[in-house]
């Protein structure tokens, strides 16, 4: 939970300090995009590998390596001498997070029986909310205080004591776990995943800055071919020695396949929203980092409260309808924000933003915690690392796609040379345009959620009785011949239950 908290705080704390970094370090808009997108890109490219390395070498070991490397990379970010060094250090930070973060869900999945996991994911949702609250507020305070004349640098240096505490606590309290079968790292799969993601995301992120050159479109189209080659190779690799990087059999699990699609699109929406929101408040409205950070508190509190309620109370009773209500609430909140921004113009106050932000926060809270639970609920335990790596990868890939799309849906609406008097109106208009896209993304998510199971497997009646024996039952179920009923059909939760009890 310390690692999940640190990762989330790091993302949100950087967003709020972006204008300060741009002014103090002299970073260009494209470098600002790379400070955020570079982290997401390295994170996405390494997550599947990080999850698999945890399965092979031990999740505790990889967790400690990742949290130690993340702490060192944070120090490098804090002492960066120029924007280029900051971008490079952020990429390293993302790579270390890719070793650290997949182990969080894997350790939870391997440590707790199914009937207890709902409570743990409820706590996870609360930690997500706490990180969302404290990140912007910490970023705002540390930037405003300008400790020791360091300007924005303490936003990274704050990770040092948290990381050291995580190392000490992790080495003492986490129990080591790994996959029951001896697996090998699929190096060809690692290369193909990384190459495909880079070919897709690099030209998207830099396209506007370079004038959308032809090679960018060729690269993005070529990425689809690389992903196709990856699927074909992984299928052969799985049949040959049973240790592919991506366990394609997971996509036969309906809850997992549908959840992956939702996570990807959700990541795109969040990637667009959080960056343009920060730029709108600080660059467009001219607010201080502290005012912008305080404005976001109602949103963060709503996320935290709704996340805990959704897992503990609502999902066991109403199932996927809770997640769909969350998508609709987020869409309504975004549309309300567009209307208020248009109505009040540049004179809009923080308290006037509270209502749309609370509605959006409740919607996000209803989605984030139960979605993870639903995606992993029917995944065999020995593939926990690979599955959690994929979940995080697609969300970060979506996030990086969203950050790349900011070039199109936000900066594409702003003139090249703005006079001071035009900055506010242009940024406000671009913000409303970008939010229109976010609302459309939420509508797509609502439709995709119809493919999720009506209820996660552990909420099926009688699931708790057999959960204690879940390990062996899940592992046996994973070894069924491929000709049998795929694990994702809606009858699976009931069908697997006698095996778990037995």
Proportion of residues in helical segments: over 70%
Order of helices and strands: HHHHHHHHHHHHHHHHHHH
Total strands: 0
Low-confidence stretches: 458-502
Largest sheet: none
Shape label:
globular
State the secondary-structure class: mainly alpha
| CA-atom Rg in angstroms | 22 Å
User: Percent of residues in beta strands?
Assistant: under 5%
Mean pLDDT: 80
**End-to-end C-alpha gap:** 33 Å
Helix count from the secondary structure assignment: 19
Explained architecture:
- The two termini are 33 Å apart.
- Helix 1 packs parallel to helix 10 (254-284) and helix 3 runs antiparallel to helix 4 (83-111).
- It contains 19 helices and no strands.
- 54% of the residues are buried.
- With 502 residues, it is mainly alpha-helical.
Secondary structure layout:
Blueprint: H1 2-25, H2 29-57, H3 59-78, H4 83-111, H5 114-145, H6 154-157, H7 159-173, H8 187-206, H9 214-241, H10 254-284, H11 289-295, H12 297-318, H13 321-344, H14 350-376, H15 384-409, H16 420-448, H17 463-466, H18 470-478, H19 492-501
Helix pairs in contact: 1-4, 1-5, 1-7, 1-10, 2-3, 2-4, 2-8, 2-15, 3-4, 3-7, 4-15, 5-11, 5-12, 5-14, 8-9, 8-15, 10-14, 10-15, 10-16, 11-14, 12-14, 13-14, 13-16, 18-19
